[in-house]
Fold this protein.
Amino acid sequence: MNTRNLRAGLLASMSVAAILASAGLAYAKGEDSHAERLATNKAEQEKLLARCAELQAIADADDGRDLTKAEADEVAENMRAFERLEEDSERRLTLLAAAERLNKPSGRKTAPGSKEDVDDPNFRPAGSAARDLDSLAANSKTFGFKTLGEFAMKVRQSQLGQGTDARLKAAAASTIATEGVGADGGFAVPPEFRATIMQRVLSQDSLFGRTNPIPLSGNSITFPADMTTPWGSSGIQAYWEGEGDTRTQSKPKLEGVTAKLYGLSCLVPVSNELLEDAAALGGYIESKAPQVIDFKLSYALVWGNGVGMPLGFMNAPCLVTQAAESAQTTDTINAQNVVKMYSRMPADLRPNAVWLIHPDAEPQLPLMTIGNQPVYIPPGGLSGSPYGNLYGRPVIPHEVCETVGDLGDIMFVDMSSYLAVRKASGLQTAVSIHLWFDQNLSAYRFILRAGGQPWWSAAISPRDGSNTRSPFVTLASR
């Protein structure tokens, strides 16, 4: 038996209590000590990782500077402590795994598929369906399931009283006696499939992914932010001094930017007819769920009011609204609008900025010119990218935008200037047949805790002139 794989599988798929229970061990003083230490180790590791992420985020927010020596030393020490805790956890899990081997259940004493299969927590299918712990460990990220559809089919069979697949024991949504009991129901979707959905939500095609969200172990985080400008009169200053003059002092002016986590849930009904086709089900869920979650997140990043959800940049104090041209035709976007919006973006942020437009505005883009030069280059042309380029920056048609002529039909934004956070544990997913049992439907539930707000508390004023600048620029209604 591969002990290392066994440890990995037990860590990924079972709680400490479940490991002890499956091994048939009494919760005596020694076992309690292991359980408490494993839980403590995990909590300490989460704190260490959160602190490292916080230090890196502070450096990134400070013009992307390198870590200071003190910060780098602290990160290195935290990672050494993380490794020591991991070694201690692995040693304790090895002891628990050895106890598991000594306490394997006896062979089948009832007919296959009988009611005892459902009630027996140590049940393992016989014959070709049998799986030992090595197999479970080797496939810990999927609990041994080949596809999401196969997992769903086994859940359905379990709830219909056709026997509970041993792999579902590791995927149970709760450590209480719910496994295979129809009235309780609920199985956690394996982590590999959850990760697949989460990766699509965090992709660069997603507004949320473009923010580079920070994982949190707690429920909120506060960062220092410097909203002063080099030409302003507050914050760190520089002065010309004569020989022998007393040097003038100055100090930073910092303000706290706090981001809190909020719960975003997605409930997906699936017909049991679709459950009969594993391939179709896997493709449906893995494509539909990310679309729904991503749009809801994206809409909140743009339009959220900050109450029970992120604060969207369209409702933030730092938003800059460029006025329309005098006598501009209703429901139009012209080259002058684009040029002036571009100028309201701070120069150092333009390389990361993108245009967000309503799809109905696309037909107007190829008509824009300055002199005889086009302002817009369509995708597949000289831009060489999946998106067209408007004044040199990518154009992303998106349904978060309002219709043409309304405020928010076109926006020029730098999403890296948005502080986004998410729960470090990632996406939580479970499946049950009971919510819509009378309609012959199964339910997938997705819960993601996320939040955020713009880094900037206000638009900045130029050294000379009246046009404020911001990483979030939109065009006034027309």
